[in-house]
Amino acid sequence: AQSVTQPDIHITVSEGASLELRCNYSYGATPYLFWYVQSPGQGLQLLLKYFSGDTLVQGIKGFEAEFKRSQSSFNLRKPSVHWSDAAEYFCAVGAYTPLVFGKGTRLSVIA
Amino acid sequence: DVKVTQSSRYLVKRTGEKVFLECVQDMDHENMFWYRQDPGLGLRLIYFSYDVKMKEKGDIPEGYSVSREKKERFSLILESASTNQTSMYLCASSFGGGITYNEQFFGPGTRLTVL
């Protein structure tokens, strides 16, 4: 069965610093991969997705993610974090079944 | 833009009450989903539907049922609410009929408290 692991429950970064959120998935073939963001009290918004092709994917709000098949990873990155990026981030994987979501990583941004 | 709306942002009910959570999407999506979100547990799939009058159990269907009489509307029903069903409920939709692993669009959520 497919599964998603987000090893970091909570990360704190300084405004302007770089960010990397980790995501590891378990699935035999190449799945569809997603990153979503949830601001407090809101639903989830899609940041980016990977289906096939170029393994470096650009998303909204300056985010990017890199698919690494050998490591079963799909880590999310941003070169310079803004205070408005404070939110919860979810990685999701889908392949012939409904999406499976990780448990999320909460990002705090300090001045 | 795809819009997924949920009937209430906040809801307070008493133990034993029958509770209806409504979800409507305006993009003619075939697939619709209900999740519950709890701290530390992430999103867990309750039920999904890939067509009108079709429904499939997700990972945690116990204590819930669903109804999909029209393509745009997917209702989650708690037959007899219990305190352990206090949670945030998220509805989502996606295109693709039986292809349920496409990008999902989410509603704002309903925070349900059962007293």
Structure description:
The complex is a heterodimer of chains A (111) and B (115). By secondary structure, chain A is mostly beta strands. In chain A, 0% of the residues lie in helices and 52% in strands. Chain A has a single domain (3-110), classed as Immunoglobulins (Immunoglobulin-like), CATH 2.60.40.10. In chain A, strands 2, 5, 6, 10, 11 and 12 form a 6-stranded mixed beta sheet that branches. Chain A has a 4-stranded antiparallel beta sheet with strand order 3-9-8-7, with no helix packed on it. Chain A has a two-stranded antiparallel ribbon with strand order 1-4. In chain A, a hairpin with a 5-residue loop joins β5 (32-38) and β6 (44-50). In chain A, 35% of the residues are buried. With 115 residues, chain B is mainly β. Chain B has one domain: Immunoglobulins (Immunoglobulin-like), CATH 2.60.40. Chain B is 0% helix and 51% strand. In chain B, β4 and β5 (42-49) form a beta hairpin. Chain B is globular and about 40 Å long. The relative contact order of chain B is 0.34. The model of chain B has no long low-confidence stretch (mean pLDDT 93). Classes of the chains: A mainly beta (111), B mainly beta (115). The A-B interface holds A 9, 31-32, 34, 36, 41-46, 49, 90, 94-99, 101-104 and B 4, 33, 35, 40-43, 45, 48, 58, 90, 92, 100-109.
